Amino acid sequence: MHNVHKGAALALVGAALAYATWVISPWLVPELSVVESYASELAADGLGHAEIFRWGDRIASVLLLIAAALLRGPRIAWLRALLAVWASATLIDSFFPMSCAQSLDTGCVLRHSTFPTVQDTIHVLSSSTATIASVLAVAAGTWLRPAARSTRVMAWICVGATILVIIASGAAEIFHVNAGLGLVQRLQLATLSAWLITFGRQLWTSWSTSRASAGPPLTCSR
């Protein structure tokens, strides 16, 4: 039981690291501004090293699915479902990347805003689904069961960062200005990875069993 329990924790931490491949982008893709470009542009068609970032998302997706399959316990069904949706949407996203890096090709923006391709449409839908499912997974894993202070703090930071991303994206669509959008989005991605690590650490140390008075411990399947 404990080995499987720790396996779920390792899967979550591994997913967090794989989901953070964007941190090496300044060295691999220096032409993309970390302040103004979408993180998704790193995996865009025609961009050097795009496969590295696509495979980072694919590995993260598989590990999230493994964690979702292993987790068991009262009030954990929502977390399992949301982790699975997050992983599935991210996996689809990795196979349907942006057809071009919009911050580098203004002509691409004009073309696809008028006649969006199937690839770009699927990308937008899967990316949006992944964003929503990820923050809901954070909420389910934090507030549907007792959680340690570190997990609650990271959850609030993640929710705040997601709200900033929504505001920044809306401003970019209305005013056509991407200043700061990339930085805010990367902050949100960083908080997601940080939350996965803190939650995984709690699984590893069996934090829920020490709070048995608050409810049955979170366990994993055999």
What is this entry, summarized?
With 222 residues, the chain is an all-alpha fold.
Describe this structure in words.
It is a single chain. The chain is mostly helical. Helix content is 66%, strand content 2%. The protein has one domain (2-100, 119-208). Strands 1-2 form a two-stranded antiparallel ribbon. The longest helix has 27 residues, at 149-175. The protein is globular, with a radius of gyration of 18 Å.
Characteristic key phrases:
222 residues, mainly alpha, two-stranded antiparallel sheet, 8 helices, DUF998 domain-containing protein, membrane
Radius of gyration: 18 Å
Main sheet: strands, sense, barrel: 2 strands, antiparallel
Beta-strand segment tally:
2
Order of helices and strands: HHHEHHHHHE
Class of secondary structure makeup: mainly alpha
Tertiary shape: globular
Q: Which strand-content bin applies to the residues?
A: under 5%
Q: Indicate the mean pLDDT.
A: 85
In order across it, which strands form the biggest sheet?
1-2
Given as residue ranges, the uncertain stretches (5+ residues, pLDDT < 50) are 210-215
Tell me the number of structural domains: 1
* Helical run tally: 8
N-C termini distance: 6 Å
Pfam families: DUF998
Keywords: Membrane, Transmembrane, Transmembrane helix
Organism: Bowdeniella nasicola
InterPro entries: DUF998 (IPR009339)
